[in-house]
Specification:
The protein is an alpha/beta fold. It has helices at residues 3-6, 18-30, 42-48, 68-78, 93-102, 115-146; strands spanning 11-14, 36-39, 55-59, 83-88, 106-109.
Length: 147
């Protein structure tokens, strides 16, 4: 069992393109990342949001009445410490800046040849952030209990 599973660090992934979800799933499996949930529907994704979410991967263009940006804002409102990775095939720099200003930790252009490698790298960064935070809180608790 890896650290992601031991600590129950959950990655939620939303994309309305089933082929893209299959590619993402294959990349995560190949990288040994196992604790994730895939969502094709923004409605199901929004129902799945909880305070226990750790990492979100969200496509900007969804096949619905809501954008990835709106979904991200709702998720951050529920859990401000969530690690957000936004994706889009749109090269608009204003969109990238808007996501980052609204709280996204990373932004991936899906038309880049290495976007899946970037996605895996960024998910690992999110996992590592939560592992580091947990280690810090455990040390802090140990120090406080010693005094």
């Amino acid at each position: 069992m890896n650290m992601e599973e031991t600590l129950n660090i959950v990655t939620l992934i939303l994309d309305d393109d089933t082929e893209m979800l299959e590619l993402i799933e294959a990349a995560l499996k190949d990288a040994g990342i196992k604790n994730y949930r895939l969502f094709y529907s923004d409605a199901a994704f929004l129902e799945g949001l909880s305070q226990n979410m750790h990492i979100l991967v969200i496509d900007h263009h969804l096949n619905a009445t809501i954008s990835g940006l709106d979904v991200m804002k709702r998720a951050i409102k529920k859990n401000p410490s969530v690690f957000v990775i936004a994706m889009s095939g749109n090269n608009d720099s204003k969109l990238v800046v808007e996501y980052l200003n609204e709280g996204a930790n990373r932004f991936i252009l899906k038309n880049e040849p290495d976007y899946l490698e970037q996605l895996v790298k960024f998910v690992r960064q999110g996992i590592n952030r939560f592992v580091t935070d947990l280690e810090f809180f455990k040390r802090q608790e140990t120090l406080l209990n010693a005094y």
